[in-house]
Amino acid sequence: MTRMSGKVSLVTGAGKGIGQAIARLLASEGSKVVVAGRTEADVMAVAREIGSNAVGLVLEVGRRADWSAAIAKTAELWGGLNVLVNNAGTTESGSIENTSEDSWRRQMTTNLDSVYFACEAALPLMKATGAPGSIVNIGSAFAVRPLGSYLAYGASKAGMTTMTKSIALHCAAQGYPIRANVIHPGGTETPMLEKTFAETGIPRKQAYEAFARMHPMGRYGTPQEVARACLWLASDESSFTTGCELTVDGGMTIRA
To answer: Computed from CA positions of residues 201, 206, 141, 59, in that sequence, does the dihedral angle turn out positive or negative?
Structure first.
């Protein structure tokens, strides 16, 4: 398959989970991929697995200077950038009464500030590439259907959603051939989901079943299911879609 032939993509949080699945799928469809993440061993392993069309890059997404370096490296390697996938994220439980300032800052930095830094740094190269471009931000069903016990996480992903729409409107108004969309996954079988189970303080089986019941389809999603939605938004097949919120959540956001 070559739906991404000739394109260059940068995916954050690509060392594991959803980001890893996205990087692999984009590469399998013909894209060159920058596999970016915090843990060197993880991103290098994924890049080696993909092969010559991928390069691993250590990136602390919450640092603006790291983004400048990452975009410069992408330009040096492959001369342009067509697709930016902001997938890196973190979650910590906490309500308005017990979310510490440190927890708030960590989640805002990783989930929200990073997307601002990424898009600010990437847009000049995407414009200079002179081809259709796509920004895909990975949000959360909690941005649409919040929980009282995930204050900062839900707020950060809701902020990301509004930012995505603002970027979409700006690019369209300027006549840039660059689209921006957001995907809201529901519970997805990843290491982050396991962390959520652990935070509940109840046995894993009980937590697993409780969270599964929040999804009308009665199960969790897989990283591959989210990756397939990302592929559509990243490719030219979605060329008339911008500012969209695409839910991949088993009906979680529309549950009664």
So the answer is: positive
pLDDT in tens, 144-198: 999 999 999 999 999 999 999 999 999 999 999 999 999 999 999 988 888 888 8
- Phi, then psi, of 141 in degrees rounded to 5: -60, -25
pTM of the model as a whole: 0.95
> Is the residue at 2 inside a domain?
no
- Domain housing 230: 8-250
CATH number, domain with residue 209: 3.40.50.720
Give me the phi and psi of 53, to 5 degrees please.
-85, 10
Position 3 in a domain: no
Q: Measured between alpha carbons, how far is residue 119 from residues 49, 68, 86, 97, 131 in Å?
A: 27, 11, 9, 33, 17
Any domain includes 255: no
Q: What is the pLDDT of residues 39-76, one digit of tens each?
A: 999 999 999 999 999 999 999 999 999 999 999 999 99
182: helix, coil or strand?
strand
- Is 76 a domain residue? yes
Residues annotated catalytic, as ranges: 153
Percent of the chain past pLDDT 70, that is, above it, reads: 100
Distance between CA atoms of 160 and 192, rounded to whole angstroms? 19
